[in-house]
Design brief:
The protein is mostly helical and 275 residues long. The protein has helices spanning 3-8, 21-25, 27-31, 43-72, 76-100, 105-109, 124-133, 148-158, 163-175, 193-204, 210-241, 253-259, 266-274.
Length: 275
């Protein structure tokens, strides 16, 4: 008997009537969804990079929505696991830039005209992640009006409290003070000294507020990885296109650098200087 026969002994070999690995994962649809519009070799890399990023964001949304649900139910322990997973998802997304950076400016220029006005700036899933986390710019909803299903998902998200607002509400309730979380809406979260004072009470006595202390650190960890992802995005774009305008009409690197200034959970960072 050959080594192959020994190793495969007992394995099912006929899937004419049963679900296979490819069937379960829908691989026919996934692997037939890459359609380069030019003859440039590196366009395939560009497409696969962004498609896989969208799949990871799909999972991040799944985890963030679930974390918010269990937090609203007052169950923090499962949320800790979910938030840790989202941080690691962004670590995975961060590593993906290393692959894209193997493409040179000359190689990108060979197929850039095929992109037209398409841009990652238009990703409705990325916008949903930002809205979930509290960076809510309602005016950007206009980008998604041509896709009613995506538009409705984002509209629904703006009607709910962000993950950070839920965390603040839980902290207020635990410490016995009126909620500082504010109402849901289409505006980004702005730093509030009263919220910073709230978190300072937690950080000054972690042994008395361990669940809130752990929640705060899970959020900081998530934003840490998110910021690294943004930074590597800027570096990759600058390395490949320099300071050209983005394909979607943004100022390119200048716009991305501006995004580096955004703080998702500002009080959790500012409180460190007050301790």
């Amino acid at each position: 008997m050959s080594d192959f026969d020994q190793a495969s002994k007992g394995a099912k070999m006929d899937f004419a009537r049963d679900m296979s690995y490819g069937d379960y994962l829908g691989l026919d649809a996934i692997l037939s969804s890459q359609h380069p519009l030019s003859a440039a070799h590196d366009e395939m890399l560009f497409i696969v990079q962004h498609q896989t990023s969208e799949l990871w964001m799909r999972l991040a949304i799944h985890e963030l929505q679930a974390a918010r649900r269990v937090m609203l139910d007052g169950n923090l322990q499962p949320a800790f696991k979910m938030l840790t997973r989202v941080a690691r998802i962004f670590e995975q997304l961060n590593s993906a830039w290393d692959v894209l950076r193997t493409m040179t400016p000359s190689e990108y220029t060979a197929f850039r005209p095929a992109l037209g006005n398409s841009s990652g700036f238009q990703s409705h899933q990325y916008r949903q992640v930002e809205y979930l986390l509290g960076n809510r710019i309602g005016a950007l909803m206009k980008l998604h009006e041509h896709k009613p299903e995506a538009y409705d998902v984002l509209k629904d998200e703006l009607a709910q409290p962000s993950l950070y607002q839920v965390a603040i509400a839980i902290a207020c309730d635990t410490l016995g003070i009126a909620s500082l979380a504010g109402p849901p809406g289409a505006d980004s979260w702005k730093a509030d000294p009263a919220v910073q004072d709230l978190w300072q009470k937690v950080y000054e006595a972690p042994e008395d507020h361990w669940a809130l202390y752990e929640l705060a650190e899970k959020l900081v960890d998530l934003e840490d990885y998110f910021r690294r992802w943004r930074f590597n995005h800027v570096t990759t774009v600058e390395r490949i296109i320099g300071f050209k305008r983005g394909t979607g009409g943004t100022s390119g690197v200048a716009y991305l650098r501006k995004m580096l200034e955004v703080e998702l959970f500002p009080e959790l960072w500012h409180v460190r200087g007050a301790l």
